[in-house]
Amino acid sequence: MAEYYAKFRRGYPEQVLDFVQDYFLLTPEDSVLDLGCGTGQLALPLAPRVRSVIGMDPEPDMLRLAHEAAGRRGVRNAVWVLGADTDVPALGTLLGHEPSLAMTVVGQALHWMRHEELFRDLLPLFRAGGGIAVIANGTPLWLQDTAWSRALRSCLEQHFGTELTASCGTADQDRIRYAQALEDAGFSDVRSTTVSYPDELTFQQVIGGLYSAIPAEQLPGAEQRPAFEYGIRKALPHAEPFPEQVHVSVLVGRTV
Predict the structure, then answer these.
(1) Could you report the per-residue pLDDT of 70-121, keeping only the tens digit for each?
(2) HSE (CB half, 13 Å, CA atoms) of 244?
(3) Distance in angstroms (rounded) separating the CA atoms of residues 114 and 85
(4) Burial of 95 (0-12, 13-18, 19+ CB in 10 A)
(5) pLDDT at position 167
(6) pLDDT value at 210 more than 80
(7) In which order are the strands placed within the sheet that holds 188-201?
(8) pTM recorded for the entire structure
(9) In Å, how far from its chain's centre is CA 15?
(10) What fold, for 2-140+167-198+245-254?
(11) Pairwise CA distance, residues 19 & 166, whole Å
(12) CB atoms within 10 A of CB 119
């Protein structure tokens, strides 16, 4: 799963990085935390903009691949830490008593976390004007408003025997809920922005994106994947490429 994540998960537009840098006034002296960092899709492009990045994830394979990607890109100011959102208080102890983080970014991972507790745990770790950026990197492949996405969803629902409705934190109601939780935790100037762009996917990118999102215990085994992929290919209404409109949503809040 981590291998598919590293290869097929899309990166983030420069406009998103520019927005968080301007909002938090990030400088080359700052440190940021990428919580649920995966294989480094956010941590690595953020690294040149700050003094250091802490990439934190509960999956060792994700961190291994992030470390390898950092080496290939010549990133020397990133450290990779095994941990989940529930380990943030322990991380705060390691960072010391003085608030030092300029930003914590959570990209496409907050739906796995206890966000109300997390926001409260993070608050004392930030320097003045620091805070949280929650980034949703586009609607899941099977929930988009296109013919091929609807066909994909129908095929997956039949295969797994369940209705697929989870938005993975990308829906409008998710952003409203997260924004209210930020305010309740004590963050101010809570606001959001969206960066949109068109894209086209190959069939292999569709399959790779699916494999990166399917829970490990449900991921088809290697011997089952040819049949699984054939069924997907047959269900899709036309040949590649498959168009999509990617809407990257950024929700931010900061300390006073």
Answers:
(1) 999 999 999 999 999 999 999 988 887 677 899 999 998 898 899 999 999 9
(2) 23
(3) 7
(4) middle
(5) 76
(6) yes
(7) 78-82, 52-57, 31-35, 101-107, 126-137, 242-254, 188-201
(8) 0.92
(9) 16
(10) Rossmann fold (3.40.50)
(11) 27
(12) 26
